[in-house]
Specification:
The complex is a heterodimer of chains A (about 120) and B (about 120).
Chain A: E1 4-7, E2 10-14, E3 19-25, E4 32-38, E5 44-51, E6 56-59, E7 62-67, E8 72-77, E9 86-96, E10 100-103, E11 109-114
Parallel strand pairs in A: 2-11
Antiparallel strand pairs in A: 1-3, 3-8, 4-5, 4-9, 6-7, 7-8, 9-10, 9-11
Chain B: E1 4-7, E2 10-13, E3 19-25, E4 32-38, E5 45-51, E6 57-58, E7 67-73, E8 76-81, E9 90-97, E10 108-110, E11 114-118
Parallel strand pairs in B: 2-11
Antiparallel strand pairs in B: 1-3, 3-8, 4-5, 4-9, 5-6, 7-8, 9-10, 9-11
Classes of the chains: A mainly beta (about 120), B mainly beta (about 120).
Chain lengths: ~120, ~120
């Protein structure tokens, strides 16, 4: 069973700082990994998708890396802004018998960026 | 990206009644949709995988008779919480993948979620 751990659980930083959010997973046989953002009481917004054959993906101020063999991914946020405040979730995709390609979630990192 | 619409966004119901939640893929077809449940400050837990035209696959510990799933078309899956009780109060979220090329290569998109409160 895939176990996903995200560190830190919570993070509070002043605006402008560069951040690194960490994700580790126990089953390295993944097909891809997604990073999501979840605002309070809302659904999930997909930020980045990294295929298992890729090392990293970039979108604007976000950069995600993947080290599949060691079961790790990091999300780098450059020049953080108050609007980045949210919970960030990483979710590797693994195959589940009869369930297709399911996402497995950790508890996320709750980020607060103060003005 | 692709859009997944979930309705309603919130619902309050009396204990013992049933509630239906809809999940629609608006601009793509999804043979498979996933239903998750999230308790406060907890991770999303997969409840079941909904397959178009066939029975849903439930995760261990999820009662299939309580959480009825119907995936009648390639763009619609429904989750019905039957005889709801206060302990069923939670945040329910659906997800679907745009088939694209190979299914497992594609990005998963999520609905807005439904906050269910059973009183």
């Amino acid at each position: 069973k895939q176990e996903v751990t995200q560190i830190p659980a919570a993070l509070s930083v002043p605006e402008g700082e560069n951040l690194v959010l960490n994700c580790s997973f126990t089953d390295s046989a993944i097909y891809n990994l997604q990073w999501f953002r979840q605002d309070p009481g809302k659904g999930l917004t997909s930020l980045l998708l990294i295929q298992s054959s890729q090392r990293e993906q970039t979108s604007g101020r976000l950069n995600a890396s993947l080290d599949k063999s060691s079961g790790r991914s990091t999300l780098y946020i450059a020049a953080s802004q108050p609007g980045d405040s949210a919970t960030y979730l990483c979710a590797p995709t693994t195959i589940k018998l009869n369930s297709g390609y399911a996402l497995n979630f950790g508890k996320g990192t709750s980020l607060l960026v103060t003005p | 990206g692709a859009v997944v619409s979930q309705h309603p966004s919130w619902v309050i119901c009396k204990s013992g009644t049933s509630v239906k939640i809809e999940c629609r893929s608006l601009d793509f077809q999804a043979t498979t949709m996933f239903w998750y449940r999230q308790f406060p400050k907890q991770s999303l837990m997969l409840m079941a995988t909904s397959n178009e035209g066939s029975k849903a696959t439930y995760e261990q510990g999820v009662e299939k008779d309580k959480f009825l799933i119907n995936h009648a078309s390639l763009t619609l899956s429904t989750l019905t919480v039957t005889s709801a009780h206060p302990e069923d109060s939670s945040f329910y979220i659906c997800s679907a993948r745009d088939l694209g090329g190979a299914d497992y290569d594609t990005e998963a998109f999520f609905g807005q979620g439904t906050r269910l409160t059973v009183v």
